[in-house]
Amino acid sequence: MLAGLSCEALMMTVPTDALTTTLTVEADAVACALPRRARIAFIGGGNVARSMIGGLLARGTEASTLAVSEPDAGLRAALVNDFRIAAHAGNPEAIADAVLWVLAVKPQVLRAVCHELAPLAQQARPLVVTLAAGIPIAAVRRWLLADSGSAPAIVRAMPNTPALLGAGATALCANAQVSPAQRTQVQALFEAVGTAVWVDDETLMDTVTATSGSGPAYVFALMEAMQAAAVAQGLPAATARALIAQTVLGAGRMLVESGEDAATLRRRVTSPGGVTEQALRCFAEDGFDTLLARAIAAATTRGAELAAQYAD
Ligand SMILES: NC(=O)c1ccc[n+]([C@@H]2O[C@H](COP(=O)([O-])OP(=O)(O)OC[C@H]3O[C@@H](n4cnc5c(N)ncnc54)[C@H](OP(=O)(O)O)[C@@H]3O)[C@@H](O)[C@H]2O)c1
């Protein structure tokens, strides 16, 4: 959380004719607004961009400060309809006046997008935030430099889709060109849609992707399996769904709000010889921990493969 940080710390370079539009993040986290007319452009209007845009608007960001570029006309229309923000077919149009560019395209198209925007990046000197899984900051920097110019400020972010509900988890990693004020600004941007933490060692970002980026899918898979098991024993599907969803939500809240670690909370609900112990014995016998370790390792490797494939 950003409590205690000054408004000045949240300021970034904006045009001097900047007027009144503000990006407001959670009031209890940041008592002041981000810079006036701090326009934010999303390049790519897919799942994650939609999550972030939805989360930002829900928390008081004015729609007029956001723009998005999206080649698909249907998605563009949906963005305008759902969020009332400016949606452009072309990337240069979207970034006009923007001081913060969020590159929300798939890793395989990031290079082309950066090459297209490189001359504009040299002129505008924006803070560039890249969401592409597996693509290192060094690759984005190289592509944006387009063989010349000075290195841009780049933050590599790995959010996840619960950002739509303001419940996202984002890891952030910055290059040396990112100023402390810009770091604070990016943190505020992602804290508007959940929790944001900094990872200093960029090599760990593939692990982050495999943990929290893909993590919601693991939890959905767990919930699917729990529901199937409960329904197989006769529980109505709607009843199982309601109970399981609230169980996951409640357990997550306990972990976040108690300050205890997961092992302590697990032990607390596991009476010796009781019901929970029997279930956890099955987990252990069938290698639950090993399975998750293998899954996260495989996902981490995939992140590295993507980097090798797209970041040369
Ligand atoms: N999904 C996740 O949970 C998650 C989590 C963390 C990070 N990420 C990362 O976030 C990024 C976005 O993921 P996503 O799931 O939101 O992908 P997505 O739904 O495919 O969104 C990307 C959007 O970019 C558009 N696009 C393609 N080429 C473009 C171009 N040249 N200029 C502008 N827009 C272009 C695509 O349009 P078309 O469909 O018409 O091609 C698509 O709508 C990825 O790099 C991913 O690695 C995703």
Descriptive notes:
By secondary structure, this protein is an alpha/beta fold. The protein folds into 2 domains: 8-209, 3-Layer(aba) Sandwich (Rossmann fold), CATH 3.40.50; 213-309, ProC C-terminal domain-like fold, CATH 1.10.3730. It has 12 helices and 8 strands. Strands 3-2-1-4-5-6-7-8 form an 8-stranded mixed beta sheet, with helices on both faces. Helix 1 (47-58) links the parallel strand 1 and strand 2 (66-69). The longest helix is centred in the C-terminal third of the chain and has 23 residues, at 288-310. The chain starts with 39 loop residues before the first strand and ends with a helix. The relative contact order is 0.11. The protein binds NADP nicotinamide-adenine-dinucleotide phosphate (NAP). NADP nicotinamide-adenine-dinucleotide phosphate (NAP) is lined by residues 43-49, 69-72, 75, 91, 104-107, 109, 112-113, 131-133, 158-161, 213.
